[in-house]
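Lab channel / #folding
Pinned by the channel admin:
"Please post every new chain as: sequence first, then the structure tokens as a reply. Keep commentary short and put observations after the output so the thread stays searchable."

First post following the new format, from NK:
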Amino acid sequence: MLKDEQIQGIFRELSYHTSRSGGKGGQNVNKVESKVEIEFDVTASMFLGPEQKSRILSLYTGLIDGKLIKMTGNRHRTQLENKEEARKKLISLLNKLLKPVKKRLATKPSKASKKRKMESKKRKSEKKELRKKLF
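Reply from TO:
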């Protein structure tokens, strides 16, 4: 998980590009550049540790040139809202990639579950036994 100061630092390292967006907005869509595309260079980041960088690079397959993450925001009518949307997408992606994986604890089935399983098998076999034709 990223800390607040890391997130603020990452926001300073982003590069922004705008373009015309499709979707709702009428004539506004044709003349205003409201779509925002952000790029984040994972390898050049000063706010991620080496372990975090290697984890992101190994887990995320959507990297461009092996180091860039691109996110777009074009759902809203204003450039500012789309910028915030793209930032949120990036941070949620980074947090998801950096979340530690829980170790699975091996468990044994309980006596009650074993008993239920055996009774179920017994009922099924009896049902199938009744279907047999007797000569």
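NK: The chain has one domain: 4-98.
TO: also worth noting, Strands lie at 15-19, 35-41, 68-73.
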